[in-house]
Amino acid sequence: MERIWRFCVRLLIPAAFLPLLILIGFVSPLETFQMGPDRLTASDIAENFQSALDAFQKKYCFPGATAAYVLPDGTFGVAATGLADVEAETPMLKESRMLSASIGKTFVGATAMALVGEGVLELDAPVSRWLGNRPWYSHLPNHDAITLRHLLNHSSGLPDHVHLERFAAEVSRRWRETGNPFSPEALVEFVLDVPPLFEPGKGWAYSDTGYILIGLVIEAVTGNTCYDEITSRFLTPLGLTLTTPSNRRFLPGLASGYMAADNLFGFPPKTTSSDGTMLWNPAFEYTGGGLVSNSLDLARWGAALFGGKAMPGAYLEELLNAVPIDRDTTDIRYGAGVAIYLKGPFGPVYGHGGWIPGYSSSLRHYPDHGVTIAFQINTDIGIVDNSVPLIEEMETCLAKVVLEGSEK
Asked: Global pTM?
C-alpha cells in the first residue's frame, strides 16, 4: 500500500513543486551502484542496471517500468521495477508490455525502406503517384509536391493532426465508442484544406499525419495491411514475439497506464479496466505508432535495425540520410523514422522516443559502442509536459551503467 500512496500523492503534486520535491530526501540513481577498477561481469552489469532502474522508481515515484540492453556480442539484460497495476498491486514483470507509441515509426520507416530496396517504392517520387486518386488528396496541404522522403523525415510541411484542438475535442467526444472512432483516412481529414507550415523540403515539423500517409502508401503498393508487412518482415523473422499491433482494446500482458486527470483528450486517468481491457481504443494511432511492445523487444529491434541486420541490403545510408530539425543547429537530425543526435556524452545516438496517454518509451542505440538500450514507463505524468527531466536522466544514467560497465 505504501507504493500506492506514494503514487497517489504524485498525482496531486503541482508540477511547479516537482523539481524541489525530487531533490528532498532522494539520492541520485547514479549513487546506487559503484564501479570497481576491474572489468565487470555480465551479472554485475545486470545488477547495476536493475539497481539504477529501482532508484529512478523511488526518486520519481512513477508506478513501474521495464528496461533492457543489448551488447555488441548479443548479450542482453532486462530489468523491471514497481507496479504494472497500482490498484491491484500487480508487480511489473520483465515481460510486461506497454504501448510504444512513436517508436512504431521506426518499424514504419523500415518497412518503407525495405520496399524502396525492392524497387516497389521510390523515395523522391511524389506521393500522388500512390494516393492521388483518393477524393481527398487534392485537399491535402502541399499535395502536389510532397514526396515519400518528405513524409519519412518530417519535411513535408504537413500539420500534425494530433496537436490540433479540433482533433483533441473529437477524441474527447468519441473515445467511448465501441470500435475505432478514427480510421486512417479520417485522421488525414483533420488537416485537409489547412494551410501548409512551409514548402516541402524547406523546413522541419514533426507530423504524425505524414506517417499515417506512409501507412496508406505501403498498403496501396503491397495490397496488405501495414501491420501484416511489419509482422512478416520484422516481428516474425527477428523473434519479437512480445511486439504486436495495438489495433484492439484487449492487449495481453499490457501494464495499466496512468495519466493526469486533466489530460488533453479527456481520457480516464487509468488506461485499463479491472480485467485489463483498455478503456479507449488505441487503434486510432495507426502508423503514427501503432504497436504494443516490451523493452527487450525494442532493444533487440534497435540493435538489428541500426546494426544493419534488420533486412537484406545496405539500407543504413538511406535510413540515416537525415535533415536538421532546426535551422540553427545541425546536431539533431531526423532520417527515415529515426532521430539522430550527433553529439552526446557517449557519442552519436540513433533512436526514437514514444508518448501516448499513459505510457512513455525510449529507444537509443550508441553506434560508437554497438549498444542498444530501451525502457518503458507506465505513466506520462510530468513527462508529456516536460515538468520533470525523467526521460533524459534515465537515458543518460542507464547508458552510463551499461557502457562503462561493458567497456571496463
From this structure: 0.91
